[in-house]
Every structure is written in C-alpha cells, then in structure tokens.
Amino acid sequence: MARIDTSSYKTFDDVTGRLDQIVTSVRDRQTSLERSLDLFDEAIALGSRAVEMVDKIEFSPEEKAQMEAMASQGGGDPAPQAEADAPARSGDAS
Known about the structure:
By secondary structure, the protein is mainly α. The chain has helices at 12-27, 33-55, 61-72, 79-93.
C-alpha cells in the first residue's frame, strides 16, 4: 500500500472536515467495498496527521500554569481545551 499524502491538511479543522466527508461516503450504500477500504486507509492516515498536529502544540506559559493548576486540584483532564485550541495553533505552526 502506498503512503497517503496528508501534507495538504494544514489545520486540525481540515483533517476533521475530511474525516466527516469520509464517514458520509462510507455510510452511502452506493459506495463500493473497495472504495470504502480506500477511504478507511485515508482515514487512518488522517488520524496520524491529527496526532502529529496535537503533539506539536506549544502552550503559552499561562496555559501551562492553568493546566498544572487544574491537575493539582484534581480538576480533570485539560485535554479537551487543548484539542479545542489545536486548529488555530496547528495551522500557525505548519
């Protein structure tokens, strides 16, 4: 299997938008099994791209302090906020 090029997806929103399109296509009864498998491979590659984007996020000192404070207070996982910030940050970093 050839590696799928995901470099054109510059933001987290780009990735999730394409993943939404893939889900819609796969759910369509007119989509062949072969096409569905190709889309599945693309979705896996896009998932890897999203992980790369999240791993590259650089938090400001204020954001780091806020996450540390939440963690020390047992405030739960700050990851949902980090993921919400990912689209703007990922696009700027690339």
